[in-house]
Structure formats: C-alpha cells, structure tokens
Amino acid sequence: MLTIALPKGALLDDSIRLFQSVGLDFSLFKDKANRQLQIADPTGQANALLVRAQDVPVYVEYGQAQLGIVGYDVLREKQPNVANLADLGFGGCRMSVAVKASSSYRSALDLAPHSRVASKFVHCAREYFQSLDLPVEIVPLYGSVELGPITGMSEAIVDLVSTGKTLRENNLMELEILYQSTARLIAHPLSYRINADGLNDIIEKLRQQVNVPA
User: Fold this and answer.
1) Does 5 have pLDDT greater than 90?
2) Contact, 159 vs 95, CB < 8 A?
3) Which residue, 70, 118, 138, 144, has fewest beta-carbon neighbours within 10 Å?
4) How many angstroms separate the first and last alpha carbons of the chain?
C-alpha cells in the first residue's frame, strides 16, 4: 500500500485538501482529539504519516514513505536523495537575510568579515555567504533566531519570512532574499521509477490539480 508523509504545521491543511481532490482523505489529522500519527485513507488506497516538516524527506529518502509534501526550504537545506516532482504553489515564503532595523546595513555585503549570522538553515546560510565571498561565522539556532540581533549574539539572521510581521514586531528588517519557497511534491526515487503501488497514477492526478505538465 502507498504511504504518504504529510508535514505538521503550516502546510498540513493545504496538503490534506490536495489529496482530498484526488480521492484520498487524511482529514482525521485535523481532528484535535486524534493522536494517531499514522492513518489509512477510508478507501484503503493509502496510508499517511504525520511527521515534522524537516523529517518528511527523511521518511521518503529511506523508503518508509513513497510520497511526501515538504517546503522547498527543507529540500535546499537537507539536500536529500528524493525526486522533486512538482511545485504545488501553496505555502509561499522566502528565505531572507535580516538585521536590526536601526543598523546602518543596507545589503548583506555591508556586513563586516567574520560577522556572526544566526540561522537554523545552516547549509543555506553558509552557501549564500560563500557565494558572496564574505567569510562569516554561522551560529546555529533552532528557536527564535530573531533574538540573535536583539541580544547582540549575531549581526544578522538567515530565516524564513512569510508576511514580515515577526521581523517588524522585533525591530528587524530584510536585507536580501536568497530564494522563494513553496510546497513541493517529492517521491522515493526507486518507487517513482518502478511505479510501485500505482504511484505514478496518483502523481499524475496531483499534477493535474496544480496544473503541472506531466
């Protein structure tokens, strides 16, 4: 039976709606009384796992799930061995460099060499500043990275931005946008190639829902 990894958090509702549009119902995950982390579609066509967004590509890469939905930001950061099949068009946000609004910085290149940059997206942050040929110290933070500049731990942060409200409320401002991120449909490469459990039929239906050419 086909197994699908769904992400907890901001992408879950749209992910459930997308699968409902192709006849798979995992809406039980939205029931606050439900504590199950694995459920079956009522039609018996597929199972779904509810996992942290960062873990979706891990379950898919290791074959515990044949399909998954995850943000492009996670794919860029983790660089898993999965098939990236479609941009699903929802969950839009951007990866940005931000600093204190009161600072004199107007671009990332204004940062002094060896400045500290706080981020939970360590790989993406390092890759970006290497592309600028600007040596910085990446400080890994996995909570509220906005506290980096506020407390003076770091001069800047690299983080996801949706509306920008959190930055503004903490007196921070965006300097640069590294890339735009949306939800992506991913698959286990071997399962995709051999069409395990009718995988390609589901993929084609999902592509049609988001108007992606086959």
Assistant:
1) yes
2) yes
3) 144
4) 23
Return the DSSP state at 9: S
d(C-alpha 170, C-alpha 150), whole Å: 8
What pLDDT shows up at residue 212? Answer: 66
- Residue 154: strand, helix, or coil: coil
| Residue 117 · residue 157 · CB < 8 Å | yes
- Comparing C-alpha atoms, which of 120, 114, 130 is closest to residue 95? 120
* Cα–Cα nearest to 5, from 71, 76, 67: 67
Contact criterion met (CB below 8 Å) for 95 and 73: yes
Instruction: Please give the mean pLDDT across all residues of the chain.
Output: 95
For the cut 80, the answer to whether the pLDDT of residue 107 exceeds it is: yes
pLDDT digits (tens, 9 = 90+) for 180-205: 999 999 999 999 999 877 899 999 99
Return all residues near 173 (Cβ < 8 A) that are at least 6 apart.
98, 99, 100, 101, 167
Closest CA relative to residue 140, chosen from 169, 117, 156:
117
Q: Are 184 and 70 in contact (CB under 8 A)?
A: yes
Say if residue 84's pLDDT is above 90. Answer: yes
Give the strand pairing for 172-181 and 93-100: antiparallel
Q: What is the DSSP string of 62-97?
A: TTS-SEEEEEHHHHHHH--S-EEEEE---S-EEEEE
